[in-house]
Design brief:
This protein is mainly α and about 180 residues long. The chain has helices spanning about 5-10, 15-35, 40-55, 65-85, 90-100, 115-130, 130-140, 150-155, 160-180. It has two domains: about 5-85, RNA polymerase sigma factor, region 2, helix turn helix motif (Rna Polymerase Sigma Factor, Chain: A); about 95-180, Arc Repressor Mutant, subunit A, CATH 1.10.10.
């Protein structure tokens, strides 16, 4: 079933919407959540919570990109669960990803406060300046939390090339944000 038809089912308040959402996007959402939580039960629970949140928010929201909408909800729930479960200690991969991005994005508590929407718009603008391959690699690493090895395999590249490209992209992001008034 097409995403538009699934969204129509949500607007009709049909419980079939959840079943169709699971059939169309359940595996991708589970994979996304599992990469964050590294726990099967927690990932399944996060995906279930994602369906509930979608049910509660559609309508009135009519997402243009349904999977992206669901993935955003799933990531938020999964990272929230990770924070709750691990409190002061973080999983190594999340710490690694966060540390990499801290080099580009400043700590907003020490800088002038900018709305997260504005930062999101700047990140989107930056992503629009990248070529397709670089943008996909960046998104696979920092949105989907893919490992370097997984990205290299997916795009038939060496791990070294992926690391180099991510390093250069993070540097370009830092320069881009500095030009916009952000400094790390």
């Amino acid at each position: 079933m097409e995403d538009g038809q699934i969204i129509d089912l949500y607007f009709q308040r049909s419980e079939e919407a959840i079943r169709e959402t699971e059939a169309a996007h359940g595996h991708k959402l589970y994979t996304l959540s599992y990469r964050i939580l590294l726990n099967r039960e927690d990932a399944e629970e996060s995906v279930s919570d994602t369906y509930l949140k979608a049910w509660e928010s559609i309508p009135p929201t009519r997402p243009t990109y349904f999977y992206a909408y669901l993935a955003k909800i799933c990531r938020f729930i999964s990272f929230g669960k990770l924070d709750w479960k691990n409190a002061a200690k973080r999983k190594a991969e999340v710490v690694e990803l966060t540390a990499e991005m801290e080099l580009c994005i400043p700590d907003l508590s020490r800088q002038r406060q900018l709305e997260s929407q504005e930062l999101g718009e700047l990140l989107n603008a930056f992503l629009g300046t990248l070529n397709e391959e670089t943008r996909k690699i960046f998104m696979r690493r920092y949105w989907y939390a893919d490992s370097i090895a997984e990205i290299a395999q997916r795009y038939h590249l060496s791990e070294s090339k992926v690391k180099t490209q991510l390093f250069r992209t993070r540097n370009a992001l830092r320069v881009f944000l500095e030009k916009e008034g952000y400094t790390p």
